[in-house]
Amino acid sequence: MTALLEVEDLRVAYGKIEAVKGISFSVDAGEVVTLIGTNGAGKTTTLRTLSGLLKPVGGQIKFEGKSLRKIPAHKIVSLGLAHSPEGRHIFPRMTIEENLLLGAFLRKDSAGIAKDVQRAYDLFPILGERRKQAAGTLSGGEQQMLAMGRALMSQPKLLMLDEPSMGLSPIMMQKIMATIAELKAQGTTILLVEQNAQAALALADHGHVMEIGKIVLSGTGQNLLHDESVRKAYLGED
Ligand code: ATP
Questions:
Q1: Ligand 1 mean position to 51 CA, how many Å?
Q2: Ligand 1: residues whose CB is within 6 Å?
Q3: Which domains can be identified in the chain, with CATH numbers?
Q4: Quick one: pLDDT at residue 131?
Q5: Origin, by domain of life (predicted)?
Q6: Contact 23, 7 (CB under 8 A)
Q7: 3 state DSSP class of 3
């Protein structure tokens, strides 16, 4: 079986600075795969490249066996890759419902769209309760929920989440992680970038530790969670 996403020797640079220095990993359908690592390791750069927002200087990205290298970002969404970016990027003056509908901009099946709006409200009831309010009135955690709900509106085959727990209270973070687990249980394939290694590894099938542009360690979520070097470097243990 070929993987849903295959990344091989991917290299990405900002001018002369190589931010991603030849990484390889894959994501199978139905899996949650996480990239963890400290600030500046290259995690966000990797996701932005998979979305087509940055062009690689080397390597291969294959989605369902087809190369994404020459495909523009808007086409990549239509192939089934959705990206919920770091910092959320919701539209604060538009209503919550309008923000969700933006995620469905490539779709024409209005009955299916309405069903998926309802699915987002089932997943995150607060969004339904406040559907007619400006999105800017939501708290940080609620905006994160909206960004995830919006990404799901494109019915992605692969959902990429960039630091969904960033800046959230512990309770809100737990809620977001529980939702990711629920999405996984529903069969959604997820590539999760997180600085909160503990939470990410606890729900991931596979994980990769990134350090300054390279993958330095890979394993199942459980193996990495119990790995001594990971515990020391990323889980704050002595
Ligand atoms: P963070 O969690 O802080 O976002 P990250 O692992 O996602 O970290 P990246 O944001 O991908 O890391 O950054 C990787 C490297 O690329 C860093 O050294 C960063 O300074 C550099 N970098 C990121 N964006 C740019 C840019 N627009 N121009 C130049 N260098 C950049």
A1: 16
A2: 14, 17, 19, 37, 39-45, 86, 195
A3: 5-80+156-235 (3.40.50.300), 90-153 (no CATH)
A4: 96
A5: Bacteria
A6: yes
A7: coil
